[in-house]
Design brief:
Structural class: alpha/beta
Largest sheet: 10 strands, parallel
Distance between the termini: 49 Å
Bound molecules: zinc ion
Shape: globular
Helix content: 25-40%
Radius of gyration: 21 Å
Number of helices: 17
Number of strands: 19
Oligomer: single chain
Strand content: 15-25%
């Protein structure tokens, strides 16, 4: 389809002016060509005076699709398999052995299931950390799904409790990251991008960090990692490198505009200053932080320092849902508890999940807001159900952040292409995906025993 009209909805544009208005949106060849008052003239100029596809969005919000700024599609298969534990045990006893047990088929099944869930929740862009192996299989699923994505392979050449199946030589890790970038960066018409993803400070040797940073700079790739997530992790980092991760990264020249650090729970003002000075971005993952008991990130302080920031669900085993509405509601409530004088507003929280998330990933020139010229990446969210009543339009941002649910999403569009509509996925067969995931999960669990998984 070359043209799509989404009409009669309430546009929540997330543009610099904060436009919220009743109106229509017209996309042609993947881009937004007209909004509101400009639509009739643009429609009249189309062959036959009408769009190829029209979607009636009355009783619904039309907004930029959600940016899932930190995600592990490879872990979706392991939902429910790593409960009641903190970060480092969660990794060593469960998640790493399970990741080591992945085959190409099991990782593809995991990614498909995560994308079925994400597309139905209005997510149009994901930033995926991946795991050490089978990254091409994730790339193939991202391509087939139609979603927009930045993805990389997790780099790991050292670390306590890491199964042998996840450890690589720094050379092998870097060579594969570079070759993935050659294959995938800019693929699918620019919809896919490659990142460099050193897992976290203790997973990589100094040499690997140096080369990973150089590769990111040389190729203009995001440097996606985990940063200051939990207290026990912080103690392990201090013991290993004699200072915090942020200070170590600053000293080694790792921080920069392409740096995207997930979590950032335990950062003092000096560290936030170092990140801001470098132009780095952080990703708030409140659901995962609460479930693993890691702590409460102070996003108001991030913003005081001028940091770019997005919102992420992290992995299905540490959340356990991949639902931007859940994260928005938590982000808003936590901010009120942490900063009662200056909590994030509903509009600021919605921005984290959309336009600010796009900025954090360096993609704001293309996505994150509904503006003429940008890619038509959008979600239509119904507000007609009783749980939104009686007056959902009184404050649309509040309605979306505090009462919206993933199952209110009616339409998800990436680059003008409808990927999800009223319970049906265009590119993925949800029933089949769920069946395959159950089968592959069983196989991965069996194999994980030999990679040191503790039951
Ligand atoms: Zn993560």
């Amino acid at each position: 389809l070359s043209s799509l009209l989404v009409h009669s909805g309430t546009l929540v544009c997330m543009d610099p002016a904060g436009t919220i208005a009743r109106g229509d949106l017209l996309a042609c060849d993947g881009r937004i060509v007209a909004l509101g008052a400009g639509v009739p003239a643009a429609l009249a100029a189309l062959p036959g005076g009408r769009a190829d596809l029209a979607f009636d969005a009355s009783g619904a919000f039309v907004l930029p699709g959600f940016v899932q700024a930190h995600l592990h599609l490879c872990q979706v298969l392991f939902r429910g398999l790593a409960e009641q534990t903190d970060l480092l045990r969660w990794l060593r006893e469960r998640i790493w052995p399970l990741e080591a047990a992945h085959s190409e088929a099991s990782i593809a099944a995991s990614a498909r299931l995560g994308l079925v869930e994400s597309l139905a929740a209005g997510v149009t862009c994901v930033n995926d950390m991946g795991t050490v192996r089978h990254t091409d299989a994730i790339g193939a699923v991202l391509e087939e799904s139609g979603v927009r994505a930045v993805f990389g392979k997790a780099l790991m050449d050292q670390g306590e409790g890491v199964p042998a199946g996840l450890l690589e030589s720094p050379r092998a890790a870097l060579d594969e990251a570079a070759s993935l970038a050659r294959r995938w960066h800019g693929a699918a018409g620019g919809r896919l991008r490659s990142s460099v993803a050193p897992r976290f400070i203790l997973s990589c040797s100094d040499g690997l960090w140096r080369e990973a940073t150089a590769l990111s700079a040389e190729r203009g790739l995001l440097l996606h990692t985990h940063l200051s997530e939990s207290p026990s992790e912080g103690r392990a980092v201090e013991a290993a490198v004699g200072r915090t991760a942020t200070r170590a990264f600053a000293a080694r020249g790792v921080l920069g505009e392409r740096f995207v650090g997930a979590h950032g729970v335990w950062l003092d003002d000096e560290e936030l200053g170092l990140l801001a000075e470098a132009g780095a971005a952080l990703v708030h993952c409140p659901g995962a932080n609460l479930k693993l008991g890691s702590g409460l990130a102070q996003v108001r302080r991030w913003k005081d320092h001028g940091l770019r920031a997005g919102l992420g669900s992290d992995g299905a085993p540490c959340n356990n849902r991949l639902d931007p509405f859940h994260e928005m509601s938590l982000a808003a409530g936590l901010s009120r508890a942490l900063h009662p004088e200056r909590p994030l507003t509903a509009a600021e929280v919605l921005a984290l999940a959309t336009t600010e998330g796009a900025r954090a990933l360096g993609w704001a020139d293309e996505i994150g807001s509904l503006e003429v010229g940008k890619s038509a990446d959008l979600a239509v969210v119904d507000h007609g159900a009783p749980h939104h009543g009686p007056e959902p339009l009184a404050d649309p941002c509040t309605t979306l952040v505090h009462t919206g649910r993933a199952d209110d999403v009616r339409l998800t569009v990436v680059a003008g292409r409808v990927l999800y509509r009223d319970g049906a996925w265009a590119t993925l067969d949800a029933d089949r995906v769920l069946g395959e995931a159950a089968m592959e999960r069983a196989g991965a669990l069996r194999r994980a025993e030999s990679h040191g998984m503790r039951r």
